[in-house]
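Incident log, structure service

09:12 report received: a user says their structure output differs between two submissions of the same chain.
09:20 pulled the input from the user's history:
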Amino acid sequence: MNKKVVLSIGICMLFVINCLCSMVSGLQPHDGQPASSLVYDDIKQPRLPSMTVPSTELSDGKTIDGDLVIYKTNEIIDHLEISGYHVKGNVIVKLINCTSSSKGAPLIDFTDTWTEGDIFFEWFGPGSIRVRVFLNPIVYGNISILIHDVYTLDPDNGVHVEIYDNGENIQDSSKNQAVGNIYVNLINNFCMPMEIAVTHNWVHSIIKVEVKPGNQVNTCTLGVNENHVGDSIEVAFESNDVDRILTVNIMDNTIGEYMNIFIRSNPHLGWQEVSCPCAVYIEISNNHCVEKNTGSQVWINANTQYGIPFYTTIKENGFGGDLDIFIMGNLNLIGAGDMTNKFEKNKCDQLMSITVQGNAGYQVKDYATDNKASDAQPAILLQNPVQETGNIQENQQTVGGDSDSDGLTDAYETMIGTDPNDNDTDNDGFLDGWNDVNGNHAWDAGSGTFWDPPEKYGEIGDPLQEVEVSKHRGSIGTLFAGDDDIPNPINKDIYVEIDFLEGCVISPDLLQSVQTIFAKHCIRLHIDMGWSPGPAGGATGGNVIAGGWMHNGRNYLFLDTIIPPRRLFRPLPWLTNDFYDFKTGLTTLRPSEYFNGGKIGAREDIFHYVLFVHYYACRRNRTQPFLIDYRDNACGRGELGREPSQGDDFLVCYDNHIEGGHLNVTNLRDTFMHELGHNLELLHSWQGGTPPDGFDPDPAVNPWPGRENLSDTVMYWTGGAKLDYLRAEWARIDLTVVNDGTRLFFS
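09:34 re-ran on a clean worker, output below:
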């Protein structure tokens, strides 16, 4: 093993000198004697901001309004535990040149903490380290682990990273929180054992594990298993030395888009002269990637070995898109090492290629059996095929039945990881089969007229099986702007169309923060206020509507709250600027509609509809006149998704958010999310008896004891609330209730 001792020690000394020069006075213990492990010196480093947390906040073990920041250098740490906190900022822990008092490695635990920002941990050697991030129910930001410049010859302790059971099951209707991303970076470490385990986490976007470059280890075990990931898993093991055993397991993950695995350019993988067992074991199995318009790759190439066995097993994976596997250009320099490659029962909905070529100095044995692709027969090129059978073209959409009647066959659902016995795996009201399942980007057209609806929403198996839909009077090709907006069967989706009365147009950027909040709870909030590019042959939101009642330069909207939301006729013959006149247009004086640009049937039961206005006039009973609503704290109206209205519409009053001639963005976005909350079945957060809206207190309003208040939600009645819902409210919202509360079932 190459021991670059001089360089490592030099780097460490320079860093320590820099740290000592920048040290400032530390936090003083609180009189109440807080846990000493949570009070640390504040060392100002140029790569991180200088932030401190008062010791009084660290002592209570509950809520920290800002960041929890721990910097420590040249200290003895046996066990540091951050547990039971609600941190409204980031958790940042940076430890430099620290050791334990015993032979074992320092143990750093992050657990049972609700973090509204990131969890960031950095360890700068030389000692061994064990870090665990586990059972954190909510991490809105990222979990990031950076470990570098460890130098230790301890045979039992090296670098150990465990990240498991973070986030909450987003397929469980009672839970819907997930970690933003998980990043692990291990760089330039010299140790005996190295272990990385990322297991059973619920992640909104990406898991990315990079072990590169310059790690020199005796054994390395790397596992990414049983995770639910909205976008992708990316693993890179590159430019490292491993003396004995390298084990890589990527297994049992469900992934929204794609998976990329790179094991390459490692100059030393095992040495024959070592008297202990040495080998490379790589297994990639039972992973499922849903998205059809992306490709997954596995590259095992340009590695150098010294007479040890090399085993690769890639089996029983399912991919909605392409799958490309390359085992190429690996070199064995001592004897005749065995290379065994097995590819078994992999399936993909588009193209598959498996290439094993140019591996020198090995006795290669390749097995490729029962691999299936939909678009063409798998392209398989093996260096030394021992067994190559059953690799065929087979469209999984035509194989077997459809037990849950969602438009996807059981075989296809098993392949991509959705539940063949649940027609709405992610419980968002959209059947699993709403994707363009054959990947041809084509939709059945239909006539497009209101009274002559098309029969098919898409092609299943092209053309062996077609599914009819009775509810939608327009093809789905006219509904969404592109592939990213089509409902994903493992990521929750909700759709909102926004139009504006004249003079009330806002920028799309103003609502991005609301989309971000929903994304942190594993919900993709699609807002159409003029999609660009728009759907092919379809219309978009963002209409600027003329013809309202103008008064003193402001546009007023009439809202007749006593009329059922799905009516077809105006309540009064002379009233043509009621909310539903603009939405449906089914009146003599206003024949056109603006919901989906005149194709209301196409988006009915799919999109929530919103109008932005200056003010509105409303009445609550038939004897009451229409009254102008000027109240600053009544900046919107939203139909309740549950009884009695079962609606999916709301409006936002624009002018109520203008202060001193400038738009109050905070009030506007809060109101938007508040009224959308009503559509999603949330009532007002209220303290002290029946709230003024007349409804009983919402049973969902049950703040997390010690970590939430009633005002920590935009549903708070009196304003001044936080841009979020309560944890219990997120668990309560029902995405399946759109308009009449009926799920999108096929007839």
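09:41 both user submissions now match this output. Likely a transient worker issue. Closing.
09:42 reviewer note: Helices lie at 5-21, 55-60, 410-416, 512-520, 579-584, 600-603, 665-679, 727-732. The mean pLDDT is 74.
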